[in-house]
Design a protein that fits this description.
The protein is built from 13 helices and 26 strands. The strands form seven sheets. Strands 6, 17, 18, 19, 20, 21, 24 and 25 form an eight-stranded antiparallel β-sheet that branches. Strands 1, 2, 10, 11, 12, 13 and 26 form a seven-stranded mixed β-sheet that branches. The chain has helices at residues 14-25, 43-46, 51-54, 100-106, 113-127, 137-142, 176-188, 230-240, 246-251, 291-304, 389-408, 428-438, 487-505, and strands at residues 2-10, 31-34, 63-64, 77-78, 130-131, 160-163, 165-166, 168-169, 172-173, 191-193, 198-204, 207-213, 218-227, 243-244, 258-259, 265-267, 271-278, 285-286, 316-320, 331-336, 350-359, 366-369, 380-382, 418-420, 440-441, 470-472. Helix 1 (14-25) runs parallel beside helix 13 (487-505) and helix 11 (389-408) crosses helix 12. The model has no long low-confidence stretch (mean pLDDT 96). Helices cover 28% and strands 22% of the residues. The protein starts with a strand and ends with a helix.
């Protein structure tokens, strides 16, 4: 079977939905958007608290990392959305652009802060992110940590704390699929196909021409293809298609179209570790006194769009300097006013809250490699966590200061004692061991197809170097991670690829 389009966008996630919608709006031609997973028309997707069940479900790719040397050989979950909206349909919807100097620091022509700011503004005009209302009193108390007020959302630009901004509308998830894809389907005849898992791309004279699905379907793109399958999916597809490290592809019996040594390199994420607090009347949890509230929660949410089911779990947090110095923030805290288990169970009894620390600009790097040319075999995902000692030391200092901040916060009668790792874990080596035993990531993988000059796999115009008719638009193109949650920058990248393609090929 063969289907034709002018442009095919692979991956209907946060970047892909916007790339496809903007290509269609700009009159680039017939645009087809492919998604490996199902539709996002499921009540748990739209309900903010639904992510508690979506992560690890069939709407998640359910990737696992390679054993991490920096974590004593532990493997981590690498949650990635597998439905319309992509990871933007299973995340906590936290909205941060990042810091201005994140983009200046990329040192990539056309990607300084002043270059990307207009794209952020265009995306936000449709997403309209705003501070969550009805947050838990614990979260309200965070805003006083650095002298701010409850109406000011924290920012990575300076030390600050409080309620985060989210891409929600009327207490419902408002993803790139909602704000961009669906309007473009109606207004610009954008075609969308779900259940379309990609095996590889085919080239003619090094020009990307066809998309082969795992069911044997062949899709032809007259003008070009945009890869928006994320930091895991995009490099995997590219390598299966013959673009990547030559020796690696040859070992797997893949015919080389173009040798590109850095494809799959530079993988990194925000490393994190946290503190658990538990005690009566503190946060949300499974207690006898809270049973009536949990039983009424679905009805409360359905009829009023309020209550605990209106919470994306992460309601607020902070940015601060890990060592308490006068410098700029180098860590981010996500605060969850819910009892989270620390002993290995998904749900646990009791009332409590959780706060973590993420290193904003980690130095450690890993890489992604194929295990097989078979698209049904997951790639080897080595996050490379804590390969650089500085990341461990920053996280260690951040956890120590987080304790101080949690003790300082005006939690009143909602305050609970720290139960994990517990106050007894106070020496530097004991905290380092806690990081090794319990450290994870913020589910923000980036960098595997970094853009830049020279040997970079992707050009500053987001075209795949060494071939034609092929672009990448997702978090994989980031040379280095932004200093906060990566969903907003991913959408900005999706917007910009449509700008570039429209300008470069008309």
């Amino acid at each position: 079977m063969s289907t034709n389009a002018d442009f095919i966008v692979v991956g209907a996630g946060s970047s892909g939905c916007i790339a496809a919608a903007e290509l269609a709006r700009r009159g680039a031609g017939r645009v087809l958007l492919l998604e490996a997973g199902p539709s996002d028309s499921h009540p748990l997707v739209k309900m903010p608290f639904g992510l508690a069940w979506l992560m690890g479900s069939k709407r998640d790719w359910r990737f696992k990392s390679a054993p991490q040397k920096g974590l004593g050989g532990r493997q981590l979950n690498v949650h990635r959305g597998r439905m319309l909206g992509g990871s933007g349909s299973i995340n906590s919807m936290v909205w941060f652009r990042g810091r201005r100097d994140d983009f200046d620091g990329w040192s990539v022509k056309g990607w300084a802060w002043l270059d990307v700011e207009p794209a952020f503004e265009a995306v936000e005009a449709k997403l309209q992110p705003k501070q969550m209302t009805g947050v838990h009193p614990l979260v309200q108390a965070l805003s006083g940590l650095f002298g701010g007020n409850a109406d000011q959302a924290p920012t990575p630009e300076y030390e600050s704390a409080g309620t985060f901004c989210f891409n929600m509308q009327n207490a419902r998830r408002w993803s790139a699929a909602d704000a961009f894809m669906r309007p473009a389907q109606e207004a610009y005849d954008l075609k969308v196909r779900t259940g379309a898992e990609v095996d590889r791309l085919e080239f003619e004279n090094e020009h990307a021409k066809r998309v082969l699905l795992i069911d044997g379907t062949i899709l032809t793109a007259a003008k070009g293809i945009v890869l928006s399958a994320g930091s895991i999916g995009s490099p995997a597809i590219l390598m299966r298609s013959g673009v990547g490290p030559v020796s690696h592809l040859q070992e797997l019996g893949i015919s080389v179209v173009h040798g590109s040594d850095e494809v799959g390199e530079n993988l990194h994420d925000h490393p994190a570790a946290g503190l658990h607090y538990a005690g009566p009347h503190s946060g949300y949890g499974l207690t006898l006194s809270q049973i009536p509230a949990w039983m009424l929660a679905p009805f409360h949410y359905f009829f009023t769009r309020k209550g605990r089911f209106a919470s994306p779990t992460v309601e607020g947090g902070a940015f601060f300097n890990a060592r308490g110095e006068a410098g700029e923030p180098d860590v981010q805290c996500h605060f969850i006013p819910f009892m989270l288990d620390w002993k290995g169970s998904r749900f646990t009894h009791g009332s409590g809250y959780f706060a973590d620390v993420c290193v904003c600009r980690p130095k450690s790097r890993g890489r992604l490699r194929l295990v097989s040319a078979d698209p049904n075999v997951a790639p080897d995902i080595d996050l490379g966590l804590f390969q650089e000692p500085d990341d461990v030391e920053t996280l260690l200092a951040g956890l120590k200061r987080l304790r101080e901040l949690m003790n300082k916060a005006a939690f009143g009668n909602h305050r609970a004692p720290e139960v994990s790792p517990g106050p007894a874990v106070s020496s530097n080596e004991a905290i380092r061991q806690h990081i090794r035993d319990h450290g994870a990531t913020a589910y923000h993988p980036v960098g595997t197809l970094r853009m830049g000059e020279g040997n970079a796999p992707v050009t500053p115009r987001l075209a795949v170097a060494g071939v034609s008719g092929l672009w990448v638009a997702d978090a994989s193109v980031m040379p280095s991670i932004t200093s906060a949650n990566t969903n907003a920058p991913s959408m900005m990248i999706g917007y910009r690829v449509a700008e570039f393609i429209s300008e470069d090929i008309g």
